Amino acid sequence: MDKCLSVPQGQFQLQRLPFLRNDTLQAWDAADEYLLNHLAEQAILKPDSRLLIVNDSFGALACGLSAYQPTVLSDSWLSHQATRINFQVNQLDLNELNLLDSLTLPATQFDCLLIKVPKTLALLEYQLHQLKPFLHADTQIIAAGMVKNLSANVWKLLEKIWGPTRSSLAVKKARLIFVRPDFSQVLPKNPYPSYFDYPEMGWRIANHANVFSRESLDIGTRFLLQHLPEQAGADIIDLGCGNGIVGMALAKRFPAAKISFVDESYMALASARLNVAQLSPEGVAADFIAANGLSDFAKQSSDCIVCNPPFHQQHSVGDHIAWQMFKQSFQVLRSGGELRVIGNRHLNYHLSLKKIFGNCHQLASNAKFVIFSCRKP
Ligand SMILES: C[S@@+](CC[C@H](N)C(=O)[O-])C[C@H]1O[C@@H](n2cnc3c(N)ncnc32)[C@H](O)[C@@H]1O
Known about the structure:
- The protein is an alpha/beta fold.
- It folds into two domains: 4-179, Rossmann fold (3-Layer(aba) Sandwich), CATH 3.40.50.150; 194-375, Rossmann fold.
- It is built from ten helices and 20 strands.
- The strands form five sheets. A seven-stranded mixed beta sheet has the order 5-4-3-6-7-9-8, with helices on both faces. Strands 14-13-12-15-18-20-19 form a seven-stranded mixed beta sheet, with helices on both faces.
- Strand 1 (4-7) and strand 2 form a beta hairpin.
- Helix 4 (121-131) packs parallel to helix 5 (152-161) and helix 9 (320-332) packs parallel to helix 10 (349-357).
- The radius of gyration is 22 Å and the shape is globular.
- It binds S-adenosylmethionine (SAM).
């Protein structure tokens, strides 16, 4: 698999995160190449252009355009970290890079804004609202994506919130959408964060735009909530916490424990923070960690880990992140500690769990999901 992106801006060695030996996927797509080629052919950027890049997957755009000292905005800790690593690998100056998480507002307006269309339309909608004040009448805006990911709703949102669009021809199944900012429209209200009720506990759950199962409680999560551990020890982790509802239920059940909420999405962590605040006016012992799973945890530092693993990363599907989370959990659990996992039946998580832990018990199942418990020997 080719790891070297060749574009008019140069040649760049690029890797994805999480790092996988024998990874068959590239760290960029044809839309990145199309965009970089187009920017060079049309000489769109000037040396003093203020450049914003949104939703760059693993830093291909930021590396290609490092000369313009880009601001790079993303909801993904993994994307930010991959961008830092790819800057270093290509001997680019990290001081030229300004990384912003998806809930932080930029400090300036931009002359050029490049946006990769994200998988979640709600995230796109949020970003169009969030960034409109940072456009001016002459801002050059280019949205890019693979044709299969560009539904009619992408155009509708761009036109409703930013302004009229014009499309390029498709090249290698990728397309560019050019947007002219229009400030005469009355902007609809930014609908995020949105909320749903969880009446069983009397909670109102806040969800920022990019959060898993943002509109209602996921049926798998509901099943997991019915089968949480009865005993857990002092240090508990909600791994891949999303809006934090699983960790909140654990905090309620084990008030003396400390709960660590871990996710790679900044919006997930911000939602979990908002939600945990409603548990008790005095606050609960909790921390909120943006990371690649448990990579920042010390070995043997936790008594119980509960996880509803992700089954896709951006536009690609796979169980590699789940597998990584299981291996990390084995390292981070103390002897006797428990990993509790929910998965779709067809994913066969018990095979990998048994391989890693040497044991794996099925605690519950229904037509769609299975819940497993593994103990660190
Ligand atoms: C299936 S969702 C579960 C969310 C929540 N626990 C629930 O049950 O509603 C999986 C979560 O894992 C997060 N995630 C994906 N890759 C991750 C990684 N490498 N490290 C940490 N979290 C990750 C996603 O952002 C997502 O919030």
